[in-house]
Design goal:
Elements (H helix, E strand, L loop, with lengths): L2 H7 L2 E7 L6 H11 L9 H7 L6 H12 L5 H17 L2 E8 L1 H6 L4 H19 L2 E9 L6 H14 L4 E7 L12 H9 L3 E2 L2 E2 L5 H9 L5 E4 L7 H9 L3 E4 L1 H6 L11 H6 L4 E3 L11 H12 L3 H13 L5 H12 L3
Parallel strand pairs: 1-2, 2-3, 3-4, 4-5, 6-7, 7-8, 8-9
Helix pairs in contact: 2-3, 5-7, 7-8, 8-9, 15-16
């Protein structure tokens, strides 16, 4: 069996992928034409748009991310991108995904909650029907807009009322900075946790250990998006290990956005050596020239991972997901099956 076949056959989950950032160039162009949105490089077709995925800074990345997000206008648009993501997940052997979506960004440009709820619900149902992939949502707050936190919780509650069990948790995204204190959204996250939504913030990517401490102490994080800079503080590493707070590590994203020069220079081996729980994610796959299989391939090449190491990371993802218990048990059985 080839390495790609081995990786594809593993019963994988993906816990760190953004819906807006997952839109493939050909789909983005179709939506842009449908809704009269101008995208950079669009005159050159999908290859032209893909060529625009070059980022000198996190700000460059956000500019393109927001531009692509503007292509989502109707129920059909949202349904289409959810189903296309499920198609690609199924082809890669991903059975379950927790997909981040930023609802208030779309609400702020006039898209109604009903349109967003309907698009996500119909897309999720069609993804399961066509491809057997289960999606649950993580609704995130842009950290520079803490006033949107309560409304994001309200949106999550509305989504769960419309499509029960579809919401896994609440997240926090956007650039990390001291002048965006997460304490401002702590009460909203407390309300979300009381409603059964896990706290799944990004932290420890653009900022260091202090940002992670805030995510743990103020937001009650169950997992951390990225979290790779925890190694700057040994006490923090001990806390993450003792509390079994999983890191959703996205190596290609970290390289493209300039945190590390290469995959080989990524601290992922040090995170594992410290006894931390780690799972892999693709973050915004077309924008970073990757997908979940590619993340595994690149890590194997860079770090010399054995099949056993790969299986252990796949296991961590399954165990620390919020997949329905029967699905989680099925994936673990299949992971342990001989052959």
């Amino acid at each position: 069996m080839s390495r790609t076949a081995f990786l594809t056959a593993l019963p994988k989950v993906e816990l760190h992928v953004h819906l807006e950032g997952s839109i493939a160039p050909d789909v983005a162009l179709k939506l842009a034409r449908r809704n009269g949105v101008r995208l950079p490089g669009a005159d050159g077709g999908p290859q032209g748009l893909r060529a625009a995925y070059v980022f000198r800074s996190f700000r460059d990345f956000l500019r393109l991310y927001i531009g692509v997000s503007r292509c989502l206008v109707t129920v059909q648009d949202i349904r289409d991108v959810v189903v296309d993501l499920a198609r690609r997940h199924a082809a890669a052997g991903v059975r379950y995904a927790e997909v981040t979506f930023t609802p208030l960004t779309h609400r702020a440009r006039g898209i109604t909650a009903d349109v967003l709820w309907a698009g996500l619900a119909t897309g999720r149902a069609e993804a399961l029907r066509q491809y057997g992939v289960v999606h649950r949502w993580v609704f995130d707050v842009v950290r520079s807009m803490p006033h949107q936190a309560e409304a994001t919780v309200d949106f999550a509650l509305g989504m769960d009322a419309r499509d029960e069990g579809s919401v896994a948790g609440l997240g926090v995204g956007g650039p990390e900075a001291d002048h965006y204190p997460m304490e401002a959204i702590a009460r909203a996250f407390e309300r979300g946790r009381a409603a059964g939504f896990a706290s799944l913030p990004h932290a420890g990517e653009g900022a260091g250990a202090a940002s992670i401490w805030t995510a743990v102490r103020s937001l009650g994080a169950s997992r951390l998006g990225h979290g790779v800079r925890c190694l700057e503080d040994p006490t923090l590493v001990d806390t993450l290990r003792e509390r079994a707070i999983t890191l959703e590590v996205c190596p290609s994203s970290n390289v493209v956005l300039g945190l590390f020069p290469t995959i080989a220079a990524h601290p992922l081996p040090d995170l594992l050596a410290a006894g931390l729980r780690v799972t892999l994610g693709s973050d915004d796959p077309p924008m970073f020239g990757t997908d979940l299989l590619t993340e595994y391939e690149r890590c194997i090449d860079a770090f010399g991972w054995s099949d056993d190491v790969v299986r252990s990371i796949v296991r961590t993802g399954i165990e620390d997901s919020f997949a329905p218990q029967p699905l989680k048990a099925e994936m673990l059985r299949d992971l342990d099956a001989p052959g």
